[in-house]
Structures are given as structure tokens and as C-alpha cells.
User: Which sequence fits this backbone?
């Protein structure tokens, strides 16, 4: 089977199990259960041909389709990370499947470590731009011209209209929002304090182990993107305490209501 056929096959399985969607939503660590869709239909990743399953704690492995804020949404409870050992084309696959299912806008979310000293754990940060520090790119390999160009422009990864809308919705709902640059490290070890000082020097406001490959893949195939980081902890060396995945999950659980309200409000008002 060619790669394009594997996208079609996965999309067909999802379409017949739970239908198509106009907005995609990828839920990050600790946020997987934050959002419920109306009239939801679900398919487990292990029932989708060619799909990996999520192995990271705090990530489920199911694709859900339904309505949110009056729109058709498909939602990934659990995503795939480079550190799980998956090849990049597998990490890129779900976003390409979304495109095949009619998705025009992707809201990608994650748990991130705050690098900006003005951030507090529990803050929500709108991603304005990203830095790929992983040394790898999801588009490496033969380009599928049917998906997008060989050298896609990344000068506006994040859709400016969506960013403005997210700020407006945050203000209307009384949800304070930070904004900043998200820097992708491969993980799975957390960063060192020296790496965090470097990240700050290079212009990062938050660091994390996901999201950037999905944004690059989405922009390659013409999906508009909004990104939201839940700042679950201050990054390594900023406090005199070790980083743990438990802290990441706990903070995610603490903010998930505000997060869900914000996402639902944004989806409701998104013009596609
Ligand atoms: N570093 C990398 N990934 C993360 C962090 C962090 O501090 N917090 C949550 N995800």
C-alpha cells in the first residue's frame, strides 16, 4: 500500500465508524478527558488501519467525532510523540487523515513547561510561533505533491484570525491568556536547566515534546491552525524541585474546565 492509500484507508475506517468533521482537535497530556462532544461516536486507534496507539501516560487511544459549539468536530484523545519511537510519517498520519475527512481548522493543544518567568503553572498560552529543536521534520522523505508543496511556507504557522478570536473569547469568558513561542524538544527526558536557559535566549516562552510536527503537517496540507499550551509546570531549573509527569497531569486536571470552556467558545465562533 502506498502512503497516500494508507491515509485513505484510515480515513475510510473513521468515516464509516464516526463520520467526517470540519474542525480537528488534538488533546494533550492531562487534557484528554477535558472535552465532551455531543452525539459522539468513537473508534479506538487499534481499529483504524495503520494507526499507532498512544503509549504515553495520560493519553488515551481513541478518535471521537461529534458536535461542539454547533460544529462538526473530530477529536483525538491521545497523540503520538517522537519519543515513543514512531517514524515521522506515523506522527503525521492523523493530521493527513483529518484533511481527508474534511477538516479545515486544527486546534492543537499540549502540556508545556513555562520558560517565560512571568508564567505560572495553570496558565493557558496561545502559541504565536514555534521553534523546532528536535533535529527532525515530519516532511522529511519523498514529498507527496497531492498533499502539499515540497517547501511549504511556515512564516505564519498560526492563523492570525484564530489567534485574535481566541483572545476575544478569552476576554469575554474572563479566562486570562498568555501568548508566546513554543519550542519542541524530542523528550522523553525533561530538559536540563542549561537547555532551558538556551531556550529562553532563543526566544522560547514554553517547551514541550509535541505539537510542532502536527502544526508543520497541517500547514503543509493547507489546514489552518490554532495552538494552546497548558503551562503545567515551570521548566527545569526555574524552581528548586524536580519535574514529574504527575505534576503535568495534575495541573492539566486543575485547568481542564477553563480550557474546555475556552475551546468550546472558540469552536463556536470559528469562521471556516
Ligand atoms: N518540558 C517538556 N515537556 C513538558 C514539560 C516540560 O517542562 N511540561 C509539560 N510537558
Assistant:
Amino acid at each position: 500500500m502506498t502512503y497516500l492509500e494508507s491515509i485513505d484507508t484510515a480515513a475510510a475506517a473513521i468515516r464509516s465508524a464516526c463520520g467526517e468533521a470540519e474542525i480537528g482537535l488534538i488533546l494533550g497530556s492531562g487534557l484528554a478527558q477535558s472535552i465532551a462532544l455531543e452525539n459522539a461516536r468513537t473508534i479506538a486507534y487499534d481499529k483504524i488501519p495503520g494507526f499507532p496507539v498512544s503509549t504515553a501516560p495520560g493519553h488515551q487511544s481513541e478518535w471521537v467525532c461529534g458536535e461542539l459549539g454547533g460544529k462538526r468536530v473530530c477529536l483525538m484523545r491521545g497523540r503520538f510523540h517522537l519519543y515513543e519511537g514512531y517514524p515521522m510519517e506515523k506522527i503525521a498520519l492523523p493530521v493527513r487523515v483529518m484533511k481527508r475527512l474534511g477538516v479545515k481548522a486544527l486546534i492543537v493543544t499540549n502540556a508545556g513547561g513555562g520558560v517565560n518567568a512571568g508564567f505560572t503553572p495553570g496558565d493557558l498560552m496561545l502559541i504565536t510561533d514555534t521553534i523546532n529543536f528536535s533535529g527532525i521534520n515530519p516532511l522529511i522523505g519523498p514529498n507527496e505533491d497531492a498533499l502539499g508543496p515540497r517547501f511549504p511556507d511556515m512564516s505564519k504557522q498560526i492563523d492570525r484570525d484564530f489567534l485574535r478570536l481566541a483572545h476575544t473569547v478569552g476576554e469575554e469568558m474572563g479566562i486570562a491568556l498568555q501568548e508566546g513561542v513554543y519550542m519542541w524538544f524530542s523528550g522523553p527526558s525533561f530538559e536540563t536547566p542549561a537547555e532551558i536557559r538556551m531556550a529562553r535566549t532563543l526566544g522560547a516562552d514554553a517547551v514541550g515534546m509535541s505539537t510542532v510536527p502536527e502544526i508543520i503537517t497541517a500547514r503543509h496540507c493547507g489546514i489552518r491552525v490554532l495552538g494552546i499550551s497548558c503551562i503545567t509546570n515551570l521548566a527545569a531549573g526555574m524552581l528548586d524541585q524536580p519535574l514529574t509527569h504527575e505534576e503535568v497531569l495534575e495541573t492539566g486536571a486543575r485547568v481542564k474546565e477553563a480550557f474546555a470552556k475556552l475551546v468550546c467558545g472558540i469552536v463556536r465562533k470559528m469562521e471556516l
